[in-house]
Amino acid sequence: MTTRTDTQRPDTRRRTGRTALAAFLWSLTVIPIGLWQLLDPATGPFSHELYEPTIRLPEAVPDWAGPAALIAAGVLGLLASRATRWAVPALFAVVFGVLMSTTAPMSFAGYLCALFIPLLIAAGPVLIARGRLAKTVAAIAVVGLLTALGFSGVVDYAAAGDFLSMLGGRFADIAAYMLVQVWLTVGGGIWAALVLHLVLHDRGDGPARAWLAPDRAARWGRTAAWIAFACSLPYGLVRMSWLTPWAWIGGPLDSSMIDPATRVWGLCLGLAALGGGVLCLGMSYRWGTRWPFWMPGLKGRPVPPMVAIVPASVMAAMFTFMALPFAALAIRQDALELIWSFPFYVWGPALGAATLAYAIRRGVVRPG
Length: 368
Prior knowledge:
Blueprint: H1 4-39, H2 65-80, H3 87-99, H4 104-128, H5 132-152, H6 157-173, H7 175-201, H8 214-240, H9 260-281, H10 305-332, H11 337-341, H12 344-361
């Protein structure tokens, strides 16, 4: 008789094999990054003015030791990707995802999401309106309002364009540095994914774990989703307070000293955080599996599982990896409010658990 484990083993082996291959290929890319820093220490990615290591090496350690260790880690990663137990990949996940990560990828992702908030706000009435006529009227109203705001001077589109141009130029200036920082975080995520595969699937012929059954996953996944949602509130509400007379960040601020551009950034960043928190809840409710009515051409259809799983997994990994760098930054800058206003140490694991439960319920992950 064929057991459930036997029928699933070829598929799980293929998935684990693909993740191990990704870890192998990623390790290959780490070697030239280390060589870059070793051969060009003046302009290498770890010499950039924005680079703020989580753990600083003692001054007695020679400058070449860090990039040499990175090269060695890349070489060892080629071997570690073949591991059949989770311990060694977990070490690589911690080193690259936690110890070598900085706050740069999170800041970049946060401001990138914030840039899309005005577009979503403008498109909101059109998306929510039901029926072709209602959508047409909503679109005309939005265009008319935006035009009126421009002519009245309430919104200076020329200044907004100059700002976006300046921002694009700044991103271009730090592109190489940012790409390396993001790539190291990606590596931590790949190694963490390999650990997850090994933990879920490499258990021999034992019985399936009861807590990984879809009905059980639905229960603990919902709890995890609400915890993740709660973690989005501190940062989101702090940023939104910049729109009120009671602006706050680490203490009360004089609202008269906050310029309109800063208030707009506070609105966009706050909405991005709170919107992300709401999306966390979609992992546990029906509206996370069916496209809502306002999605043109998609309403009512099933949401492809990976559409939710991939971005949620990326953010869960990033939040988890950023916990230690943010704590280190808070301590160095004597800004301990960052520790509670950015609760990544809870947010990341909770979002990861909610995502895993969602993947189990949608049949993407079949432990065993």
